[in-house]
Amino acid sequence: MVTLSIMDIAHHTDTVLEFIHKTRLSDIPPEVKTRARYLLMDIIGVAVVGSETPTARIITDYVVSQMSAGEGCPSAPLLFDGRRVSAAGAALAGGMMIDSLDAHDGQKLTKGHVGCGIVPAIFASLAETGRMDDEDELLTCLVIGYEIGTRLGIALHSSACDFHTSGAWIAVACAGLAARIHRLDKDRMFHAMGIAEYHGPRSQMMRVIDHTTMLKDGSGWGSMAGVSAAALAKTGFTGAPAVTISASEHAELYADLGSRWYTCEQYIKLWPICRWAQPAVQGIFELQAEAPLYPDDIAAIQISTFHEAKRLASPHPTSSDEAQYSICWPVAAAIYACAEGRRFGPYDVSDNALARSDIHQLADRITIDEEEQMNSVFPAQRLARLTIIDKKGNQRISAVVSARGDPETPLSDSDIVDKFYFLISLSQKASSADSIAKACQNLAGQKEGLQKCLGDLLI
Fold first, then answer.
1. How far apart are CA 149 and CA 147, in angstroms?
2. Cα angle 107, 110, 239; round to 5
3. What digits encode the pLDDT tens for the residues 274-322?
4. Which fold, 6-270+434-458?
5. Are 222 and 167 a contacting pair, CB within 8 Å?
6. CATH architecture of structural domain 275-397
7. What is the rounded CA–CA span in Å between residue 254 and residue 20?
8. What's this model's pTM, rounded to 2 decimal places?
9. What is the radius of gyration, based on Cα positions, of the chain?
10. Strand residue runs (E) in 80-202
């Protein structure tokens, strides 16, 4: 059946397959498991709000009409919907649903997001195989996904000539996870990951930065590609080696599997906007903490930042997606949020906010400068500095700031819980907040069964 064996390729590829295939919950340090639980809670909080976006409505209806499982076939429920579709369809819809609100976790060196793709792939694959009550497997797969996915993202960025979305590399991780959940042997897992890399979306990130639409970070398509690849490999379909694993120049990336835990190096966002814009918003809140900023007193705002953040610009977004991939808009909206005594959040990238002429007028008074020193440290650091000039000509200058939530400036557990409750309070699932939070925090602890704990997630 198999024309190319894992015995024919580099030893470190087999190390990766062994890690995916054989890692058990008991192999994972307690602090890594705890971090994964909080990452899952954060993703679910984002998914709840994302499930009510236009993107989610379109993609779930599309999947129901085009990707049904067929009578008597294994299937998976759409998140927060309950309609059953193929596992690939559930992964697609779940990834795009989460991606529709840009508030999910990420990792600096990947310049992208692991959780957005792996979580729906894991849920879909567990549901398809009838293993939704296997909490140990869910938590183990979460950690494996963050470990492999992060390394795949770093590998692709170091070897590709263009900047690709998360979907391009997360597809390979999702294939490995789906193959594990389906209990495929290492040969078929190897082929699944190769199929996913070959067929995965090599979508170009800066195109959607410059022309923002519902495409976003490609995570849904990557999740679907990975789940589909495992299904193909299960039947004997073969694929070329995944270069982001097998190429010799990537060997060092995988050498520390099981000793360096990238799960604990994911950042968590406080706000539903691109991570590149968040340092500038952080600067607003730091200046606000020193003394109030009133929109009518501001003559101009100058933002110094790195090239990729400057590309976000978009002072006058016309959709939520565009507002999330802007820097001028959230800076202006953050100033109004402070002045109005409310929390900056999904409202500030909503249609209601986009209809406000006052925020548009302030966004018009913002300019962005690219600073070479900030370019030189990207992506390991994402920095910004703000200068606010009032109508009397006085200047207030922030420190050079990065956004909170990075491994170097982590959010506390209570901060993460607070963000979760804030997001879910804005949704139709507000009454389920306590049960979902408990399920995540106790995952693989109380053995209550995922189906019971997270039942509200799947209907």
1. 6
2. 125
3. 999 999 999 999 999 999 889 999 999 999 999 999 999 889 999 999 9
4. 2-methylcitrate dehydratase PrpD (1.10.4100)
5. yes
6. 2-Layer Sandwich (3.30)
7. 12
8. 0.95
9. 22
10. 84-85
